[in-house]
């Protein structure tokens, strides 16, 4: 064999070896399933896109930190995706466009049951953990005269982005008080837009359901005399008989300069994944999630309410086998 032909053959062999190495040896030892070596630390999936919510909300802030932790731990392409939140996030998982998402338990319940925003059960979504409570923050101005949910009748009210988790629980909470959208003037506004509407006087009140504190409300409280509308705990318990994801909680005093704690309703947030992800991948993603709690707490105060002890309480969807494997080992 001539030196030229030998050099070409050697180069081709080297190129093939490099390609196989880059692919992780997909025909025999994938990055997640292999025994021994660095490959056992990786994941079978190469991408972990996390659907979150609006850019200023806790979902996006926490999700951005979590994606960074996953990228560092597993060497995968993990990134957050800004979305319209819960309903859109579940549909993105259903369509195979994201691997993981933050959602509210009310919307997740609808997805599992095939009700409300979902014409049939969504089988592609499974739960990893119950997270932290989203507080229903019904915000108005101090001079509006609005003190209770019943006072919202006849008022112009922002109820969240259309079909968002905020809008779903706003609608259900209003209906629990005998109020339909026919009884109010509805504006479909997200956090920032609702805050702007209150500031300009274009709306009378707004539902901003999120972890505490909500950055839009916090910023608004610095320039406007705000009032938080109370939700009667007895009424929350009554509504929970039909909508069991509602729980009664209080917005602590001085969250937004409020002198006293304000009773309201809350809904647990949920971390969900695609059922298409393998048991081993979700086991590792779940483990890394809990190992990263300190970083998540540093990114947003709401994450301080996430705990391993409470993660299985209030789950409303089937648990992914990989997450269950992790819990069973604890």
Automatic annotation (TrEMBL):
This is C4-dicarboxylate ABC transporter substrate-binding protein. PROSITE patterns: PROKAR_LIPOPROTEIN (PS51257). Pfam families: NMT1_3 (PF16868). CDD domains: PBP2_TtGluBP (cd13567). Coiled coil: none annotated. PANTHER family: SLL1037 PROTEIN (PTHR42941:SF1). Residues 1-21 form the signal peptide. The lineage of its organism: Bacteria, Bacillati, Bacillota, Bacilli, Bacillales. Keywords: Signal. The keyword Signal applies.
